[in-house]
Specification:
The chain contains three helices and no strands. The protein is mostly helical. The model has no long low-confidence stretch (mean pLDDT 83).
């Protein structure tokens, strides 16, 4: 039988602290970056972050921008990888 105790590190529990505000802001920012249709993506850069924050009335401190951008870039790459895998799976012929 497989040992499952090491697989639960990424699984949140009731006792885990909520993610930092920068992570939740980054997640929302990435949703916005990917919300313009199937063939268009805004890049998660400082200009788009500031525009998104202004449009959504999100207060971001200058010292938090780097942390938000780092988390947003990781989430953006993950989303793009998922979309590529999905597209490849759909394009793959079934034998």
């Amino acid at each position: 039988m497989r040992e499952l105790s090491h697989d639960t590190q990424d699984t949140p529990t009731l006792f885990d602290a909520p993610p930092p505000e920068a992570v939740s802001q980054a997640r929302d920012f990435v949703k916005w970056c990917c919300s313009f249709g199937a063939s268009f993506r805004n890049s998660p850069d400082i200009t788009n972050l500031r525009y998104w924050a202004k449009q959504n009335k999100v207060k971001i401190k200058d010292r938090d921008e780097a942390e938000i951008l780092q988390a947003a870039r990781a989430a953006f790459l993950k989303r793009i990888e998922q979309q590529v895998r999905s597209a490849l799976a759909k394009a793959e012929p079934v034998n």
